[in-house]
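To close the chapter, one final illustration. This time we ask the reader to focus less on the individual chains and more on the assembly as a whole: which components sit near each other, and how the overall shape emerges from the parts.
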Amino acid sequence: MPTPVTAVLLDVEGTTSSISFVHDQMFPYARRHLGDYLMEHWGQTELLETLELLAVDAGQPSAEVWLGDLPVADQPHRVIEVVEQWMAQDRKATGLKQLQGQIWQAGFESQQLVAHVWPDVSPALRQWQQAGIDIRIYSSGSIAAQKLFFGHTEVGNLLDCFSGHYDTTSGGKKESQSYRNIADDWRIDPQQVLFVSDVVEELEAAAEAGLRVLLSCRPGNPPQDPRFPCLRVENFHAITPWLG
Ligand SMILES: [Mg+2]
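The assembled structure is written out below.
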């Protein structure tokens, strides 16, 4: 008898939600609101901390050294100029990520941003939850960003569906060790976990760590390498028969 699946680990982009929402709405939103956000929050505590991280991203020891030679009125403009450049280059720097997260937070909280989830997701999650399935998220977006995202979706707050969140602090999504780390933290036998993602390299890594895997095939997902043989699902209802 194979071990029954009692837990589901879900990717976000291309699985619970469209890749396009993140790329065509969230990132452009952060770019559009960068200037206003910095001007409005300049001098506030939450931004001071981010500025220190941005200074490190810029190769400077501190924000004071980075901006200190500029008149105060010019400082936000220098930051805007530099960050706009990083955003255009899609840099994955710590300060940049934190700043984007803060801009998104303001966007989600003012309901200018509302996260996309495919229509089958919420009913399936509720059904699994009632059946006692433990559902968690693993995304390259930070845990804070995941919570913002699922706290503000088109169908309301879905956060109570999840009993855990993992991001790249557990390791990269294409490394099998990350899935071992997650199973350790979860205190679960990897074979009890079904991982669903739209990227075959991630499934390969998870399968190597002993997890069961399904490939998510959503509209707009890029085609995957057919050499990796895996079962495909087009929506979350198709996942349900694999559980329990
Ligand atoms: Mg994905």
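The chain has a mean pLDDT of 95. The chain has two domains: 7-17+115-242, 23-109. With these observations in hand, you are ready for the problems at the end of the chapter.
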